[in-house]
Amino acid sequence: MLGIPRRRAARPSSRIRPLLRGSAFVLVGTLLGAAPPDDAGSIEYRVKAAYLLNFARYVEWPASAFENPDDPFSICVIGADPFGEDLDRTVAGHVIGGRNIVPQRLKGGAEAARCHIVYIGRTGPDDLERTLQALASRPVLTVGETRAFLQGGGAVRFLLVDETVRFEVNLQAAQRAGLRVSSRMLSFAYTVKEQ
């Protein structure tokens, strides 16, 4: 398993186990803690928060992505926040390249140019298009989950496959943003779109 240190956790119920199966890129056992077994929606976003943390580890940002040597690494959520406190708990105490990880919630895409990872929640197609266009040439890893996300120029899309959280990568969008996605991360992707 990659990234997150191992901790023993209660075994997930059979109802949520399929959601977690095959998520080899994250160690979800650290995320389950005392979560009620019927809280599958919350578990889904705990898994996605862990993916965001691992994306930060397996993507390389250019030096121009940081204005100052002590700038934090920002994981931002635009629009409705499906993570709640799960994102904050997941990244708390973690450091990327000597930088503390700071989660932020933003109202619009204009503020997102200062972020390193931007999760774009469910928004209208016009808002999504504007946000992706505004970030297209910035060193920002854009992450979403709508069907049109990769086609619209997003870099990573979450999807559920057999009730398991997986992700797809639009490699061209990541490269256009000046980001280098590790081959290790690509090997865990459900699909990689190169053109």
Record keyword descriptors for this entry.
29% helix; alpha/beta; Rossmann fold; globular; 7 helices; two-stranded antiparallel sheet; 195 residues; eight-stranded mixed beta sheet; disordered N terminus
Explain what the structure shows:
With 195 residues, the chain is of the alpha/beta class. It has a single domain (17-193), classed as Rossmann fold, CATH 3.40.50. Helix content is 29%, strand content 23%. It is built from 7 helices and 10 strands. The protein has helices spanning 17-20, 29-32, 40-58, 85-91, 125-135, 171-176, 183-188, and strands at 59-60, 73-78, 95-96, 99-106, 117-120, 141-144, 156-161, 164-170, 180-181, 191-193. The strands form 2 sheets. It has an 8-stranded mixed beta sheet, sandwiched between helices. Helix 5 (125-135) links the parallel strand 5 (117-120) and strand 6 (141-144). Helix 3 crosses helix 4 (85-91).
The largest sheet is: 8 strands, mixed
Number of helices: 7
Pattern of helices and strands: HHHEEHEEEHEEEHEHE
Highest-level CATH class: Alpha Beta
What can be said about this structure in brief?
Helices cover 29% and strands 23% of the residues. By secondary structure, it is of the alpha/beta class.
Layout of strands and helices, then pairs:
Layout: H1 17-20, H2 29-32, H3 40-58, E1 59-60, E2 73-78, H4 85-91, E3 95-96, E4 99-106, E5 117-120, H5 125-135, E6 141-144, E7 156-161, E8 164-170, H6 171-176, E9 180-181, H7 183-188, E10 191-193
Parallel strand pairs: 2-4, 2-5, 5-6, 6-7, 8-10
Antiparallel strand pairs: 1-9, 3-4, 7-8
